[in-house]
C-alpha cells in the first residue's frame, strides 16, 4: 500500500511544457481520479499535476466552519498546491500560463490558495467550491485581471449560494474577473458546461 502523498501527473514534462494545469480533488477522491479530467481538455504541450490528500480528505469538517477546526489539513492542502505551482514556475512555466482547477474540497482549497497568493494566473476554476472559513477576511493583493470561474448548483448540499456570491465579491475586490455560473437543481457534481469552459480556457492558455 502506498502511503506517500505523491502528486499524480500526466502530459508533458514540466521542463518541456508551455502551460501547466493543477487539479485538486474533492473529499474521498484521489489525485488519480481528478487527473482523469485532463483527458477532457488535452494539450500536447501541457503538464498536468494533481496533489494527493492524506487519506483522500483535505480537512475534516465543512469548509464553512472556523478555520482552526480544519487545521492542519487546510494549511497542508494549500502547501500541496503551492509546491506544484512553485515546481511549474521553476521549470519555466510562468504563473500566467498555470490554470488552477479544483472540485468540492479541492475547489475550496483552489479559491483559498489563489486569494491568499494573488497574482496573474492562467485562470482559477472552482467547480462546486468557495473560500474557506466562517469569517472571510484578510484577503489583499492583485489578481491582475485573472479570470476566476465559479460553477455551482443553486441547491448544492455542501456549498451554499451565499458563499459562492461572497467568493465572487472577494475576488472582484482583488481585481479578478469573475465568471460565476449557478446551475439550477444540479446537485454536487461537474457538468458539461463547466468542462466546455475548461476546454476553452486550456486551449487559450
Give a brief rundown of this model.
The chain is an alpha/beta fold and 205 residues long.
Output the structural class: alpha/beta
Tell me roughly what share of residues is in helical segments: 25-40%
Q: Give me the number of helical elements.
A: 5
Strand order of the largest sheet: 1-3-2-4-5-6-7
What is the domain total for the residues? 1
CATH topology value: Rossmann fold
Quaternary structure classification: single chain
Number of strands: 7
The CATH H-level homologous superfamily: Alpha/Beta hydrolase fold, catalytic domain
CATH class: Alpha Beta
What is the N-to-C succession of helices and strands? EEHEHEHEEHEH
Rounded Rg: 15 Å
- Mean pLDDT comes to 95
Can you tag this structure with a few keywords?
205 residues; alpha/beta; Rossmann fold; 7-stranded mixed β-sheet; 5 helices; 7 strands; 20% strand; globular
Describe the 3D structure.
The chain has 205 residues and is an alpha/beta fold. It has a single domain (8-204), classed as Alpha/Beta hydrolase fold, catalytic domain (Rossmann fold). 30% of the residues lie in helices and 20% in strands. It is built from five helices and seven strands; from the N terminus they run ββαβαβαββαβα. A seven-stranded mixed sheet has the order 1-3-2-4-5-6-7, sandwiched between helices. The protein is globular and about 40 Å long. It starts with 7 loop residues before the first strand and ends with a helix. Belongs to the AB hydrolase superfamily. AB hydrolase 2 family. Keywords: Hydrolase.
